[in-house]
Write a structure and sequence with these properties.
Two copies of one chain form a homodimer.
Chain A: E1 2-5, H1 10-21, E2 26-30, E3 49-53, H2 59-65, E4 71-74, H3 90-109, E5 113-119, H4 143-162, E6 165-171, E7 173-175, H5 183-193, E8 197-200, E9 207-208, E10 210-212, H6 213-226, E11 231-236, E12 242-243, H7 244-255, E13 261-264, H8 283-287, H9 296-311
Parallel strand pairs in A: 1-2, 1-4, 2-3, 4-5, 5-6, 6-11, 7-10, 8-13
Antiparallel strand pairs in A: 9-12
Helix pairs in contact in A: 1-6, 2-3, 3-4, 5-7, 5-9, 7-9
C-alpha cells in the first residue's frame, strides 16, 4: 500500500493515477482544503484507491492512516505561495509541522520510505542559472520555500537518525490539468471575469522552468525505481524556461478571445517573495534516462487548454 | 538596545559580555532551561544588562521583549544534539518554532536586524572537506541540524519577504568557559564520577572543527560590523580540526589524574545523528580580516582548564 498525502490535490491526484497504472494500491490522505473529490472520481469502485479524510496536523489521524503502508508520497502543502506574505504561519503549519507529523507517524508505524515534493523555491534568488542540486548556500525568499527547505531538513535528519529511505524531488513550476492555483489558473479566472483585458503582476519578464504534472509524476516514479541511496535528491524540470509574458500570450491564444489587452502592473516580480527568474539544471535527472514529454512552453499550452475546458470561459 | 535570546546560556552570555564591552545596552531573553544566572552575575548593578525571563514559545512574552530593540541576536536553542534521538519534538519546538516566533515578534515590532547562531550540523555528512558555505545539497542528519537549517530558511524568507537584514553564522563546535554540554563537559563529569577510567562514545576517531566561545562571539561582532548585505552567511571556525581521542587525552592531562584508562565503546560515531567528521572551510571569514586567537586544540585545552575549575574534580 502506498500512501499519498495531498492525494486529492493537483499533483497528488496525478500521482495516484500513475501509481494505480503501475498496479499499486493507494491510500489517499487529504483534508480537501484544495484537493477535490472529482479529481479521484475515476478510481471509484475499482478497489485500488481508498480515501482518508483528515488533517496532517492531527497526528492521530495520520498515524492511523499509516497502517500497512510501505511508502509515503508526501505532497500535501499549502499550494498558494503568495499567501505567506499575509498569513505567516500557513506554510509553517501546512509545510514544516505537517512533514514532522508524517515522519513521526512513519517512525512509530515502521514505514521505511518517503518520497517528498520539494520545490525550486528553496534556491531563492540563486546567482547560478541553471541552478544545480549542488548549489549553495540555499536561501529561500518565500515562506513557502522556507517550509520546503525545513521539510527537506527534517526528512534527511530522520533518514540519518532513524534510517528511513528518502527521495527528495525539487520541482520546477508544475502545471497541468486539475491545477487549482498558479499563474495560468489566475489568468483564466481573470479573463472569465473580464474578457477584454488581462492584468499581469510585474513586468512580465519573470521567467521560470515549467513541467507538466504528467511528466512530474513520471519523473518521481522513475527516480523511485532508479535510486538505491539512503537519500536521493533531484531537480525535476524540463531544462528550459518560459516568461510570464509568453504565458499570458498563450493563455489568450488558447482562450479564443479577440482584442484582449494584456496589461502589466510593472516591477520585476509579482509580489514580495516571488523569485523573478528560476532555471533548474536537470542534467542529473536526464542522466538517469528520464525524458520529459513536454518542454516548458508545450506544458503551458497543454495546461491552458485543459484548464480553460475545466474552468470554462 | 540589543536583544540576546539565550543570553544566559553558554555562548549567549559570552556574547552579552562582548556587546557590553562594545558599549551596547543588552536585554537578555532566556527561559533558564540551560542558561544560568551566575553567567551574567558580573553585569549586576551596571545598568547595561536587563534580564527577561520567558520562553520563546510564548509569542506574547517575546513580543513584549522586542520593544525598543534595534537588533536581535538569536542564540536560544536546545543545546543537546543527542537528545533528538529520543525526544523528536525538542529541536522542532526550541529551534524552528522558536525562530518563527522571534521573526514574527520582530516583524510586528519593526525590529530590522537579526544575527543567528546556526551550525555546521546543517551540512550533515558532507563529501567535501573542508566544507565551504557554497556546499550543497545540505542534508543534516540530526534533528538539531534540521532545526538549524529550518531556522536559516525562515530567516532568509523573512529577509526576502519583509525586508529584515540577517547575519547567519554557521558555527563549528564551540567550546569554552561556562560550557553546559558537549564532549569536554561530559568527559569531566565522567572523570568526576570515576577518576580511574574515561569512557569515550565511538572509536575516538571522530574529528571536528572547534572554536573558542570568545573567538566565536568576536567573529559574530566582527561580521555584523563588516557586512552590509541583506543576508550575510559565514562559516565560523578555526580552519583546523581535533579528534575525540586527542580531546580525551587533553582532558585527562589537564585533570592531573594519574593512571586513567581511556576506553572506547567502538563504532565510527558517538550516536545516530552524530557526524563523525566535520571540517569547516573558513577562508571567507578570514578574508574579512578576522583572526581567531586559538586553534582547535588550544581552544579545547583552554576549555578543559576552565570547566575543570568550574565543575571541580
Amino acid at each position: 500500500m502506498h500512501l499519498v498525502t495531498g492525494g486529492a490535490g493537483f499533483i497528488g491526484s496525478h500521482l495516484v493515477d500513475a501509481l494505480v497504472s503501475a498496479g499499486l494500491k493507494v491510500r489517499v490522505f487529504d483534508n480537501f482544503s484544495s484537493g477535490r473529490e472529482e479529481f479521484l472520481e475515476h478510481h471509484k469502485g475499482t478497489g485500488m484507491v481508498d480515501i482518508h479524510r483528515g488533517d496532517l496536523l492531527d497526528i492521530g489521524a495520520i498515524s492511523s492512516a499509516m497502517k500497512g503502508v510501505e511508502m509515503v508520497h508526501h505532497l500535501a502543502a499549502n499550494p498558494d505561495i503568495r499567501l505567506g506574505t499575509e498569513v505567516t504561519d500557513t506554510d509553517l503549519k501546512q509545510g514544516t509541522l505537517a512533514t514532522y507529523n508524517v515522519l513521526e507517524a512513519m517512525r512509530k508505524e515502521g514505514v521505511p520510505a518517503i518520497s517528498f515534493a520539494s520545490s525550486s523555491a528553496i534556491y531563492g534568488e540563486a546567482d547560478q542559472m541553471p541552478t544545480p542540486e549542488t548549489y549553495g548556500p540555499v536561501m529561500p525568499i518565500s515562506l513557502y520555500g522556507a517550509s520546503k527547505l525545513g521539510s527537506e531538513a527534517l526528512i534527511t535528519a530522520w533518514a540519518g537518525t532513524f534510517g528511513a529511505n528518502a527521495w527528495i524531488h525539487r520541482f520546477a513550476n508544475i502545471v497541468g490539468p486539475r491545477g487549482t492555483h498558479g499563474v495560468i489558473f489566475d489568468f483564466i479566472h481573470k479573463l472569465k471575469a473580464d474578457p477584454s483585458r488581462l492584468e499581469v503582476l510585474g513586468n512580465g519578464m519573470q521567467e521560470k522552468s515549467y513541467m507538466s504534472a504528467e511528466d512530474c509524476v513520471g519523473a518521481m516514479m522513475h527516480l523511485i525505481g532508479y535510486c538505491e541511496l539512503n537519500v536521493s535528491l533531484y531537480n525535476l524540470g524540463t531544462g528550459d524556461t518560459c516568461s510570464v509574458r509568453r504565458i499570458a500570450e498563450i493563455v489568450v491564444e488558447e482562450s479564443g478571445l479577440e482584442g484582449v489587452s494584456i496589461e502589466y502592473t510593472g516591477g520585476d516580480r509579482g509580489w514580495a517573495g516571488d523569485v523573478p527568474k528560476t532555471s533548474l539544471e536537470v542534467g542529473r535527472l536526464l542522466g538517469t534516462g528520464f525524458e520529459p514529454n513536454m518542454a516548458s512552453e508545450e506544458a503551458i499550452r497543454h495546461t491552458a487548454r485543459a484548464l480553460i475546458s475545466e474552468i470554462g470561459l
